């Protein structure tokens, strides 16, 4: 069976050591597009839940406990808490049991694990379909061709200057890599490559200032 793993572009995942590890186990490595966490949305959503719990625990004690010492308990709490969409704890769906004794019997709480997994899967699909309807209602379809000029929406870190430009460019579309990704001639300072593969949501059509007219100039 073919195996693949999807990661972001952190140095830990793009290192030669990690690539060699994946090759040894015949695992295909897929990378998210830069500054587009939605590509790996499920992982990012879990991380956000864990960070929220960590904030509560770190700030709930007078003696500041390092978050690294709280991570295990926070993760256990997450795994044992029924999910708002599936209605089951992640630990139950994964293991088929919970690591504690229920006072009235575990089966009184949840269906048999195979049935629970099917229900959780269907509930997840239904939830995603509802989100898709809401997203499609405000989605504006756009498509670029090789040679088109675009501007790129920059990612600004919290400590970035307030007056930093929102977009950079213009850049030229080199090619379309997939339905939602394009290669543009924007240099990558980390990899030293002359181009980058970016998500379509980060691109806007470039309009030359020479061709723009203000309302009073018409």
UniProtKB/TrEMBL annotation:
One of its GO terms (molecular function) is nucleic acid binding. GO terms for biological process: DNA integration. Residues 1-98 form the Integrase catalytic domain. It holds the Pfam family Integrase_p58_C. PANTHER family: PROTEIN CBG26694, PROTEIN NYNRIN-LIKE. This is Integrase catalytic domain-containing protein. It comes from Araneus ventricosus (Orbweaver spider).
